[in-house]
Amino acid sequence: MVQAMGPTYAGGTQPITKDGYDVLYLPDVNNQELIAQGEAPVFYYVPNRVRMARKDGPDKGDYLFNLVRFAGTGGEGVIGGGGDVAGGMMTFSVTGALPEQTRRQAESEITQRFSGSEEVFWGLKNSRKPPMFRPAIISQATTSVSNMSPTPTGFPVADTDTRGVTRGFRTVGMPRSRALTRDPEPGATDNNLDPWYCMMQGQGGGSIDPTGTHAFSGLLGKYPASIAWAAFHGTASPLIVIQNYKLKVWSPVCTIKIDGNWDSIFTHFSAAASGRAFWAKVDAQAEFNNMRKSGTIKVDVKVDTTLPGAEEIARRMDERSELVFNKFMEMAQKVIFDPPAPEVEAAEASSGGSIFSPWGVGLSLKYRRDETHLDLHYEETRQFAYLQDHTISSSLAGMADEIKADPDAERKYFLSVYLDDWPQRLARVVRPVASWGDNTVQFLSVQVGYPNTTGELNWQGHSFSGSDGVDPTWKFQTAKKVAGDVSGAPDGWTPDMTYVKRKVHLAEPPSETLDQYNRVQIERNVIDLDPEPNGTMLNDTTLEVRADNAGRIAVGPIGLGVMLEDNSQTVEVVMEATDDTYQPLGMAPVRFRWSFSDVDTDRSWTVFSGDPELLPFYRYQVTATVKGTLFTPGQSWTGPWVSANGNGPIIIDVPRPTDDGVVSRSLPDDRVRKLREIAAPVARDVAPAPEAAYLVAPASAPDDDAQPREAAATPTRFLDYPL
Questions:
Q1: 628 φ/ψ angles, rounded to the nearest 5 degrees
Q2: Which of 13, 319, 419, 653 is found 20 to 30 A from 179 (Cα to Cα)?
Q3: How far, in Å, CA of 456 to CA of 639, rounded?
Q4: In a domain, 117, yes or no
């Protein structure tokens, strides 16, 4: 019983194009016998053009393509940053598979085309069963993709034959003398990815299923990434994918004769070498055909004459198949070529022409006369099985049409990544601000908290003192999290927020008796600047721990607005903290005294209330005193309360005795009477001195003889001195 053996090129090929897809059909070598025995004839299909694969499943129809371009500076805020970098990452998949509907339409067209034909391999006129369709038998598949950067020998360009079929790549232009990757020089912020870098992964062996999918990925430098981005948004593609299949095909029963002279063949190859080190398939096959034309090699192919159109079948076998050339190369490898060179990358296997060959790599020319006869003679009659190269290629165009039809599709395929966005370093720079010279602040402390993935706050702390030097800055750093990665986060928290707890730690205030010029009031020794339990949530990068924020009033230098004439004159000032309406806060007032000897010495007053909301509002009251003598009473008057605000220097306004609101101090009546009694005998015997007017009673007293009239017009309240 005859069975389907495999595809053959003896009957030619039938290309079909449907819905933009190209497929090539081949008949089984035994189709005539299958039809004669009532079996279904068999046709084989193989892709005739590679195309970009599409997804299955929920996103069915979307291209298996992504182009990500990236850029970053690797600056201070980026964890693991390596300096300036720009480039792209491209992934895509190609396939030769047809959509189910397109495949059925193509098969239907083949069936209709040959339904009335009696051709040996294609005819279906006498078939009692519809034909069967199978994928072609592929023994080996090699896939490559064009490079978008100059190689050490130049730029790669596609190499095509006279029919426009891409056979491989060759390089032209200025060669690259530098490496495709480079490291930045020490201290330089340079791109650590060469702008022309292009490394495509996925080249080499592919699936032997012609409907399979082959994936590629590529890391691109700045220039190839930019070219690819622009090209895929336009009407052209910067990439050409080539797939070379080795199809296992069969010949009908035929006789092959090859005759020649090895000396002549070697001489021909030597003359055509043109300095090449290795021979690739396309080069050797071209010279083989030239020698056939010149008669150096004679070939005769005869097909079983019982087959209708045997001569035409033989011609097609000779012209369209590689059977004869492969037989010649089997013998040539034993005579004029060295054994195969070591395996190299598919994209660089030859100096030009096709990168694929029957032997896999290029061969070098070497004639071994001592091992062979001079004459070439080969003759064999049988049904041959051989490997036939079938190369397909295509540029990956069509993305622009997809985007035009669906503007939202661009986001499916193209993405820009800014490397400085992740992983971000969250940093806080904390600096103390305090007047360490007055020894009021002992030290400052800060704690910065940031939630972990479970929402718990992790704290780091630091303290500052006056001995920290000229740059006491402290830096807090952590990795900035994504909000979705933190469960149970505190209310109101966002990834750019940190918690801060700042404290001012004060020294014990000095005794008022030790320093009469500087007064320090401390209500609490440890002052929390941020509320408990977790402090203040903020996103400021630069933070300060300021002693000023500890509810501080700092008034100074404090000076008098008058000069004192001698040691008999003193001025006392009472200062008291108030709210913004100048009502006392209940803190103890402080008192300063100026005398003639220290009138030019400035005073200062500092309050640390522990209340961050405290504002520098205060009031002061002045009492002036002129000391008297044993016989001359002194004077004292007290001015009204004066409101003031703001930290810094102040000049105290000393009121005059006659100013509004001034209250003078007077002697009690019983002491006045005693003074009169003591002074009465003296007053009768001695005329009163001018200053005696200060010893008489007020104008309202009934004793007119004891008080001069000229003093009555100016009532005065006298200083109270003990007798």
A1: -95, -170
A2: 419
A3: 59
A4: no
Q: What is the DSSP letter of 309?
A: T
- What is the greatest pairwise CA distance in the chain? 181
User: Which of 188, 63, 35, 60 is closest to 124 using CA atoms?
Assistant: 35
Is 542 inside any structural domain?
A: yes
CA distances in angstroms from 439 to 135, 318, 508, listed in the order given: 92, 106, 9
Last residue of a domain, one of 531, 549, 567: 549
pLDDT tens digits, one per residue of 490-522: 999 999 999 999 998 988 777 777 788 888 888
Q: Which residues, other chains included, contact 469 with Cβ-Cβ below 8 Å and sequence gap of 6+? A: none
The model scores a pTM over 0.70: no
Pairing of strands 138-145, 132-135: unpaired
Task: Concatenate the DSSP letters of all residues of 484-495 into one string.
Answer: GG-SSPPTT--T
Rounded-to-integer distance, Cα 463 and Cα 446, Å: 6
Q: What pLDDT score does 697 carry?
A: 38
pLDDT, tens digit, for every residue of 11-66? 889 999 988 889 999 999 999 999 999 999 999 999 888 888 888 766 677 889 99
What would the mean pLDDT of 108-119 be, rounded to a whole number?
93
Instruction: Determine the structural domain holding residue 694 and report its residue range.
Output: 669-712
pLDDT number for residue 614: 82
* Range name among 151-165, 376-390, 431-445, 465-479 with the lowest pLDDT average: 151-165
End-to-end CA distance of the chain: 154
540 and 471, same structural domain?
A: yes
Judging by beta carbons within 10 Å of its beta carbon (0-12, 13-18, 19+), is residue 681 exposed, middle or buried?
A: exposed
Residue 380 lies in a domain: yes
Q: For residues 641 and 636, what is the distance between their CA atoms, to the nearest angstrom?
A: 16
Same domain assignment for residues 302 and 343: yes
How many structural domains are present in the chain?
A: 4
β partners of residue 634? none
Residues 494 and 450 in one domain: yes
How far is CA 404 from its chain centroid?
Answer: 29
215 lies in some domain: no
The answer to whether residues 358 and 282 belong to one domain is yes
CA distance 450 to 459: 7
Report yes or no: 573 and 591 within 8 Å, Cβ to Cβ.
yes
Question: What Å distances lie between residue 216 and 63, 90, 142, 391, 631, CA to CA?
Answer: 13, 8, 13, 18, 116
Residue 343, pLDDT above cutoff 80: no
DSSP state at residue 346: G
Res 67: pLDDT: 94
Distance between CA atoms of residues 508 and 53, nearest Å: 79
| 591, 496: one domain | no
Tokens of 583: 């009502």
Sorting pLDDT into bands at 50, 70 and 90, what band is 122?
very high
> Where is the domain boundary, 385, 402, 437?
385
Q: At what angle do helices 262-272 and 281-294 cross, to 10 degrees?
A: 120
Task: Write the pLDDT tens digit of every residue in 545-589.
Answer: 988 777 788 898 999 999 999 989 999 999 999 999 999 988 889
Side chain identity at residue 94, one-letter code: V
C-alpha 693, offset from chain centre: 93
Pair (487, 605) in one structural domain: no
pLDDT digits over 241-252, tens only? 888 888 888 888
Residues 543 and 484 in one domain: yes
Residue 699 pLDDT exceeds 90: no
